[in-house]
């Protein structure tokens, strides 16, 4: 603009040009009020420009804008972005129109953050993998959540616990079985463990329990056998393709003073169906059936179905009524599977069963842990087991608490301690080892460098020898710690024991 | 750091101990429960056993009682008296009541037991809940304790870390401060130096500015002047431009016209060009055609030429052969004639001698003439030129290579007087190869397409002309020179024979001839004849040549014009020879002989007449006798008697 003026104006009027530029500057800021006056030569060029400028800034807008600028709420940024609106809409209508996979990652995250945990599983189960969403679902439903017990996955935890809840409250012949089977396609990929600690019996007619009276229900059960069957797991387990752990208790929890024997019936039909179920489930690694009145025959039926199972590693039949025949069947299973953990605690295994177990154990190379707590194997069984341990090179944990063992077993075990280098934990609590037996065990301990735990509480051992054994164990532990300088090796046995404690 | 590790280790040990104690404390409850359970089981077993015993006893007694009662029922059936029956029934009732009471008692006992068991169950439940409570309490306590200790441990570890961190921090801070101070000092230094530099630069800049201004002014003035000059020039240029423009316009006009003209000419030229192109094409085609024709012709001619050359060679060979034959025949005829002449001469001499000795009684001496002793044709050996020999040598060797029948050729080739043909040839080849510099380059280029032997021939010709070797002798000299040189310079034991032969050339040649004649140009010859040229090192050739040329130049006459005349036999002396033969008897003797002849003829005539006469006489005598005989016969014949007139009488009559 200035150059144009300079060319138009004569060289003498430099002052005027100066003036004109100043006015021009003013005119641009203050509008067109003064622009028309001093320069008649320019209007042909200037007015359209100044007018257009004035349209946006001057006239009516000039004042308004100042006011709006002072209003802190009036801002373009306040208006929600279109994406936000869309996301809100998607969240609102997610149930009817679930859109998630097509979104950008950031938007996806936003949608997941705002989704309600009450959405039907049919919509969310196979669509959402996001852990935070499932975490919200879990925390909303259950106050206590141990996600570590479910492989660290909130989604898995949600489905497992959801399914367990359904099974716990399933009442045969009154609850619709479709309720569970409908859930199957949704949870089949996520459930790895099923831990059901109660199975409700079928609803009884009100007069029945009265007439049954408080007698032992043996005869009655036989009559009503078909009526007391529990939920059949066959269909469900067959559908769960990743199931690895099955933990069942055929009983009723929190019955209190409403106790009746037939609340705790594990019928033959239940047994047969369960046997077929676990036989068909090839992914199963851990099978637990506790507190369910499993007697010899039922144990044999179950164990027969488990022979040559491709994956099974742990079998737990604790707190049942398994006797010698059942123990013999378990011994057979030891040589026909890759079982690593066998738990027969609180059963009725006697010397004969222990001998057959010892026979199987003598040449077994898979079993790591054997638990025979609260049985009655006595010295004969104990000696047989001790003999087996002289050749076994695999077992690390042995629990023989409360088995009425005494000195002869202790002498044999002391020889085993001097020879065996794999055992790390032995429990002989609640036996009648006696003073001499304690001394012999101490002698055996003096040659052992691998044993880390040796429980001799309440077994009539002299305090002195118990203390010395404790010293030797301390030395062994120190050596083991230096061998593997990872402090977690101390924690692991303790934490592994953790869940067992409340059960006992 | 170490102390920290120690602390953590200690802490770990403590924690492990604590955990162990805690678990023991917690599991104590379980163990206690276990042992209680065991005790309970034992007691239970005992009680059950007692109960079973009791029940069995009871069963037995009640069975007995029952049996008794049933027995009594049998007994009662037999009773007829109602009183008795009533009594018996009463007693039965009492018994039954006792039995039932017993049973009821047992039941109540059992129920009592059950009740106590129920109580026990409740108690057990309570106890268990208590236990669980205790367990929970202990666990909680344990958890608290462990938490506390873990916290303490954590805090202690944290403290240790904190302390260490603080130490590290302070040390690092110190280091940092020190570094910062040093850095600041350096920075200050840099700043000062920078300020100084800036001032310097400012001064320089000012100076530069002033100087630039001045320069600018001067340049400006100069440029203005330049501008003025240029403007003047511009004016001038403009004027010239005007002028030039006009000129150019004129030129342009002219050129336009010319252009038009040139367009016309161009078109003409174009037409001409096209025409010429046509012609050119025609010519080209003709040319190619001709080339092809000429090539064909050339081919045919070359083939002709080759054929002719071969024919020529054959002809030459034939000619040579015929020449040989002619020579031979000539010689034979010569010899025959000479013999005849000599016979005649000896006859004449005999006659002369007889005449002299017998008729004239003169002593006779046999005349002695040179030609009498001569046998064979008079041949004057003409000196052949070196090139001819060369040719012969080469051809000869070639023929040797190809043909077997060379004996004839060798017999006529008297070239190798002292050396064998092979040796010569090899020497010549060597010479040719080594002294190529003597040949003109033009010649070489010409020689290229020729055959090998021809090439050699021409090359050697050129070399000899350069060296000044013309005659046969020179060539032999050269060859001998080579051989001698070799002998002198490489007297190896193996070549002693060749040395010897070189010293006695005559014998050697004879020997070699014999050999060559005996071995018909075969390979054994090659073996026997020492292949001398191989012994002459190619490098020595030039030295030898130099020496040879130096030696040759001295006795050299001014070079005679080389004439290439075919060897023609000189017949000039033949006639003289024959003349001499003819005039072996001198004219004086002839005259004598003529005179003698005439005298003897006369004598002969006389004698012949005499002889004739004698013969006539003899014949007449014979006639006479015959006639006498005839007459006798006639006379004696019987016819006479028969005849009237006997002849005899007639005869006698005439005769009478």
Automatic annotation (TrEMBL), chain A:
It comes from Panthera pardus (Leopard). It comes from the Eukaryota. Belongs to the DRC5 family. Keywords: Cell projection, Cilium, Cytoplasm, Cytoskeleton, Flagellum, Leucine-rich repeat, Repeat. This is Dynein regulatory complex subunit 5. One of its GO terms (biological process) is microtubule-based movement. Residues 1-61, 205-227 are annotated as: Disordered. Pfam families: LRR_6. It is found in: Cytoplasm, Cytoskeleton, Flagellum axoneme. Its main location: cytoplasm. Residues 1-39 have a biased composition (Polar residues).
From TrEMBL, chain B:
PANTHER family: DYNEIN REGULATORY COMPLEX PROTEIN 1, NYD-SP28 PROTEIN. It comes from the Eukaryota. Residues 576-635 form the Dynein regulatory complex protein 1 C-terminal domain. Keywords: Cell projection, Cilium, Coiled coil, Flagellum. Residues 31-132 form the Dynein regulatory complex protein 1/2 N-terminal domain. Component of the nexin-dynein regulatory complex (N-DRC). Interacts with CCDC65/DRC2, DRC3, GAS8/DRC4 and TCTE1/DRC5. This is Dynein regulatory complex protein 1. Residues 494-533 are annotated as: Disordered. Component of the nexin-dynein regulatory complex (N-DRC) a key regulator of ciliary/flagellar motility which maintains the alignment and integrity of the distal axoneme and regulates microtubule sliding in motile axonemes. Plays a critical role in the assembly of N-DRC and also stabilizes the assembly of multiple inner dynein arms and radial spokes. Coassembles with CCDC65/DRC2 to form a central scaffold needed for assembly of the N-DRC and its attachment to the outer doublet microtubules. Belongs to the DRC1 family. It is found in: Cytoplasm, Cytoskeleton, Flagellum axoneme. It comes from Panthera pardus (Leopard). Residues 35-72, 100-142, 213-304, 610-637 form a coiled coil. Its main location: cytoplasm. One of its GO terms (cellular component) is axonemal dynein complex. The gene is DRC1. The keyword Translocase does not apply. GO terms for biological process: axonemal dynein complex assembly; cilium-dependent cell motility; regulation of cilium movement. It holds the Pfam family NYD-SP28_assoc.
